[in-house]
From TrEMBL:
The keyword Hydrolase belongs to this UniProt entry's keyword annotation: yes
Domain Nudix hydrolase: 42-165
Keyword Hydrolase among record annotations: yes
Cofactor(s) the protein needs: Mg(2+)
Keywords of this entry: Hydrolase
Molecular functions per Gene Ontology: hydrolase activity
Protein name, as recorded: NUDIX hydrolase
Species the sequence originates in: Aquabacterium olei
Pfam families: NUDIX (PF00293), Zn_ribbon_Nudix (PF14803)
InterPro entries in UniProt: NUDIX_hydrolase-like_dom_sf, NUDIX_hydrolase_CS, NUDIX_hydrolase_dom, Nudix_N
Length: 181
């Protein structure tokens, strides 16, 4: 996934770039040999929620690649002009059409290999009326014993659910930080 974001052509003039360490830098960048533009690629934030209704959690079956047909928590790329919390709420609306009361930040997971940081907020569902958007085949509630562990889309979703069910035993929900390399 990291290399999916590798730049091959200059975003200013379209010339094939050279990958080299620019002067006064210490990392390899995509440098345009024609106009001199240096491309800086930095990690992206993926923001989402863990929506809960009683002792059930909401999962969405993905209708898009990657991991089409697998189950995920509602989440997606943060947009310019919004906060992480606003992005998480927006993704929950777009992917599940779920009505939530957003709670506290719950998991921050560095996905180093993909150049992403995943942030999940806890959320309380206000009702069980879901209206999945085009990126979702199905949105439904799962009891703990029903969670499709083998068909989860992403490791960060598994980690967040693992921690949630463990915390629910104690009733103590802090913030969890983890790294995937
Ligand atoms: Zn250029």
């Amino acid at each position: 996934m990291l290399f999916a974001r590798r730049i091959e052509h200059c975003q200013v003039c379209g010339t094939p770039v050279e990958h080299k360490v620019p002067a006064d830098d210490n990392r390899e960048r995509a440098v345009c040999p024609s106009c001199g533009h240096v491309h800086y690629v930095n990690p992206l934030n993926v923001v989402g929620t863990l929506p809960v209704w009683g002792d059930q959690v909401l999962l969405c079956k993905r209708n898009i690649e990657p991991r089409k047909g697998f189950w995920t928590l509602p989440a997606g790329f943060m947009e310019l002009g919004e906060t992480t919390a606003e992005g998480a709420a927006r993704e929950t609306d777009e992917e599940a059409g779920a009505h939530i009361e957003l709670g506290d930040l719950y998991c921050v997971i560095n996905v180093v290999s993909a150049g992403q940081v995943h942030l999940f907020y806890r959320a309380r569902l206000l009702d069980t009326e879901f209206a999945p958007g085009p990126e979702t085949m199905e949105a439904r509630l799962f009891h703990r014993h029903e969670i499709p562990w083998d068909d989860l889309a992403f490791r960060t979703v598994r980690m967040t659910l693992d921690r949630y069910f463990a915390d629910r035993e104690t009733g103590q929900f802090g913030i969890h930080c983890a790294d995937i390399r």
